[in-house]
Design brief:
Layout (H helix, E strand, L loop, with lengths): L7 E2 L19 E2 L33 E2 L5 E3 L6 E2 L7 E7 L4 E5 L7 E3 L7 E9 L5 E2 L2 E2 L2 E9 L5 H4 L6 E10 L6 H12 L6 E5 L11 E6 L10 E6 L3 E3 L1 H8 L27 E3 L1
Parallel strand pairs: 1-2, 3-10, 4-18, 13-16, 13-17
Antiparallel strand pairs: 5-8, 6-7, 6-14, 7-9, 9-12, 10-11, 12-13, 15-16, 15-18
Helix pairs in contact: 2-3
């Protein structure tokens, strides 16, 4: 999951012992990448900066979801939003150096009625994609994964919520390649990505509810952001049913230029699965 951060620093060996795994969003931009073997690949994120030591925490994401080890939680309900916004939502789509992200306008943001194992309301802030999927199920990746990023309403913004134990909730939706792409919201997102040129933003409107095909079938666990600062402030909800799309539409996402000018598919934008370290992964049942 990508969090926008601002001015570049050079990777240095400034690892700080993880007294807290709730690192704030750095006030400067921390350069990181997915080119394995480099000084700023995922295995070195924890030592890039004083505000990225959380990447060495014990409740990191993504994970390998082993379905036979998940625990049935009968009281978990569907993921639902307040009824007042039923139309399509507008936002600004931009390249972010590791793909593209759609930030919804504040006036239109959806608010959840219920998020598992949390209290209070969560506001849908933005969405972005990873290819292939970051979460894996029984050792296998899906073709891609959308992340719908929410912050707890009482904290007012993603930046303020990152350092809070219950600050964030992210819904992950897998992508699966088939012969047709029938999800209108996903298609609108892809069409917007296809129109991006350089740093120029693109206005996009879509209905995020269409992305949750069956809102009562999901896995959930306590984890972290999947990019620096890797704060362990995320309640993850990983939907079981994937969005069906085509090879051509997936290629649009994979062809997006990243920070070094190469297309995304060269290095991907996927952090390797992290140790579960005794955490429980729940499923609806």
């Amino acid at each position: 999951m990508l969090i926008p951060i601002a001015v570049v620093v050079v990777a240095t060996n400034v690892y700080v012992a993880a007294e807290s795994a709730l690192c704030p969003v750095p006030s400067h931009k921390v350069h990181f990448n997915y080119h394995f073997g480099s000084e700023d690949d995922p295995f070195h994120w924890y030592e890039l900066d004083k505000d990225t030591h959380c990447c060495d925490g014990s409740k990191q994401s993504p994970i390998n979801i082993k379905t036979r080890n998940t625990k049935c939680a009968k009281k978990l309900g569907p993921i639902q939003y307040e009824r007042k916004h039923r139309r399509q939502l507008e936002g600004i789509l931009k390249r972010n150096g590791h793909g593209a992200s759609l930030a919804f306008f504040k006036r239109d943001r959806l608010v959840t009625k219920d998020m598992p194992f949390t209290d209070g309301e969560y506001v849908l802030d933005s969405m972005h994609f990873h290819s292939p999927s970051e979460h894996i199920v029984n050792g296998k990746h899906h073709a891609g994964e959308l992340h719908l990023v929410h912050y707890k309403k009482r904290y007012g913004s993603v930046g303020a919520a990152v350092g809070k134990e219950d600050g964030l909730a992210v819904i992950g939706v897998f992508l699966k390649v088939t012969r047709a792409s029938e999800d209108n919201a996903f298609n609108r997102f892809v069409d917007g990505v296809a129109k991006l040129k350089g740093d120029e933003p693109e206005k996009v409107s879509l209905n995020p509810r269409e992305l949750l095909l069956r809102d009562d079938d999901y896995y959930t666990y306590k984890g972290s952001l999947t990019t620096p600062p890797c704060s362990e402030s995320v309640r993850w909800v990983v939907m079981e049913d994937p969005i069906l799309t085509t090879v051509d539409r997936l290629r649009v996402l994979k062809d997006v230029p990243v920070s070094d000018g190469e297309p995304l598919y060269v290095d991907t934008n996927v952090r390797p699965a992290q140790p579960l370290n005794g955490r429980t992964v729940y499923r609806t049942c």
